Amino acid sequence: MKVILQNCILLLVLFAVTSCLSKMNQTKNDGDSTIRIIFETDMGNDIDDALALDMLYKYQDAGDIELLGIMTNKNSEYSAAFIDQMNNWYGYPEIPIGIVRNGADSEHDAVNYTQHVALMKDEQGATLFPQSITDTQSLMDAHILYRKLLAAQPDHTVTVVSVGFSTNLARLLESEPDRYSPLTGKELVSKKVKLLSMMAGCFNKEDQLEYNVMKDVPAAKKVFEEWPTPVVTSPFEVGIKIQYPGQSIEQDFQWAPKHPMIEAYKVYMEMPYDRPTWDLTSVLYAVEGSSFFDTSSPGKVLVSEKGTSFVADEEGDRYYLSVDSLQAEAIKHHFIKIITRQPANLQK
Length: 348
Known about the structure:
By secondary structure, the protein is an alpha/beta fold. Helix 2 packs parallel to helix 13 (about 280-290), helix 5 packs across helix 6 (about 165-175) and helix 6 packs across helix 7 (about 185-190). Strand 2, helix 3 (about 75-90) and strand 3 (about 95-100) form a beta-alpha-beta unit. The strands form 3 sheets. Strands 3-2-1-4-5-6-12-9 form an 8-stranded mixed sheet. It is globular. It contains 15 helices and 12 strands.
């Protein structure tokens, strides 16, 4: 009787393991493990946006994500032009780009590396980095492209990674039903999005108005108050602890004599310089989860003209990330490993 019982238990364990493996394989084969991402960026204001986009292409190369679209919230024709060049260089010219019209004014806030790279020429006088889009003003408004892309996705599957101003996201929330969906913007987000991973705010100094929030305070306030899915924020104090080394830019890309991200980095500030990785941390969280970070308790994010603050609330669905020195060092090396990897398109 004891042997029969042991055999029955063994069969049950084998059945459970087989069932579990079957489900895992089914998930993998169905592609459910691939994370669907829309990237929202103020490309051209700080170089970390370019490094963050590089990471997304590498994740796509590996099959970890599907990059559905890239939205720029910077009022500059060169922002979209540079993104188009990046799409082409990394082998993804089909990724759609949405633009902002009449957005926040940031054209003179920093050296616009996107303009520099977009205008670079080769020895024959042709554009150095190929482009698919000849007229960036022909591109769709970002909040409308959001509606088009979201409507086509399965429910609760899209992660939005926002590393710039909240202008496009606020306009999406305010959008009305259209030919893409009978839902309002807020309803569409609630139905299709599972997570908003943001680089925004500063929670260790409540009187410091972080740049992404400062440039469009009403939009940031609307998003933090009304966005209908969980929001995980990587604040200013996280990215500034993790500096991408300029030495890596100078030494680790010999496999690419001309590289749009490297050219952008070199012109943004006088080389060599290390740069905080604010935007990269939101990409990392969106794709690889919380294993690299500490995550706050749930709560609410309050936005005012003076700054941002976090209030713990068990019923809230806003969270923020933090890191200690050991975590910061581990993340830095992880970033270097990903960013210095040769893109799949160049390995063909």
